[in-house]
Amino acid sequence: MNDNHAQAIPLDGPYLDILSHRQNGLCCSQILVKLILQDMGRENPDLVRSMAALCYGSGYSEGTCGLLTGAACALSLGLESHPDRERADALLTLMLDELFGWFTVKAEAAYGGSRCVDILAASPDKRACTLLLMGTLEKLTTMLASTPGAKKRI
Questions:
Q1: Residue-wise pLDDT tens digits, 23-70
Q2: Is 134 among the domain residues?
Q3: For the chain, how big is the Rg over CA atoms in Å?
Q4: Interhelix angle for 92-111 vs 127-145, to 10°?
Q5: Which of 37, 9, 48, 6 is CA-nearest to residue 133?
Q6: Domain span at 124
Q7: Residue 107 · residue 132 · CB < 8 Å
Q8: Is 153 a member of any domain?
Q9: Which of 33, 35, 28, 14 has the alpha carbon at shortest distance from 74?
Q10: What number of H helices and E strands is found in the chain?
């Protein structure tokens, strides 16, 4: 592990949105999906509420970080290029591989694992969660911005 969890958090931009949503009781997966929806110019309270099942390691099971599984959902949401929006985009599998690989490397290097329990053990004050949320939001935004046909508002 390194000292990434000691990294300074910029007190502007997405951090203020994240802080506001946290104060309103949302977890990482909910915040991420809410911010992606916001970037798309949409709201979907039912979807944001359903993301609570992914909080704290896939529904409190100490599994994969809910931020990663929430990011996978947000990525799929952002790839609305298919005319039948309920079907998965063919590009989704490749992009999920990229996202999971990126997150796993980042979380394991900085916090010793990609499970919620690993990340919180390295950062009980949840600073790591904020840093990972900001990094994951940036990664998703970059991935969607570079994808033809992705739903984005630039």
A1: 899 998 999 999 999 888 899 999 999 999 888 776 555 678 889 999
A2: yes
A3: 15
A4: 150
A5: 9
A6: 12-80+87-145
A7: yes
A8: no
A9: 33
A10: 8, 0
The count of domains in the chain is: 1
What pLDDT is stored for residue 45 in this prediction? 96
The whole-angstrom separation of Cα 117 and Cα 61 is 9
pTM for the model stands at: 0.81
Which residue has 């949105």 as its token pair? Answer: 17
**In degrees, to the nearest 5, what angle opens at C-alpha 146 toward C-alphas 143 and 148?**
115
Quick one: tokens of 83? 């005319």
Asked whether residue 28 is assigned to any structural domain, the reply reads yes
- Written as six digits, the tokens of 37 are 């929806």
Across 25-37, b (16+ Cβ under 10 Å) vs e yields ebbbbbbbbbbbb
Angle at 29 between CA 92 and CA 107, to 5 degrees: 80
Type of residue at 48: V
Q: What distance in Å separates the CA atoms of residue 52 and residue 63, rounded to the nearest whole number?
A: 14
Q: Can you list the pairs that 22-28 forms with residues at least 24 positions away whose Cβ atoms lie under 8 Å?
A: 27/51, 27/52, 27/54, 27/55, 27/56, 27/66, 28/55, 28/65, 28/66, 28/67, 28/70, 28/129, 28/132, 28/133
Cα 51 to Cα 60: distance, rounded to the nearest angstrom: 12
Which residue in this structure is represented by tokens 């992705």? 150
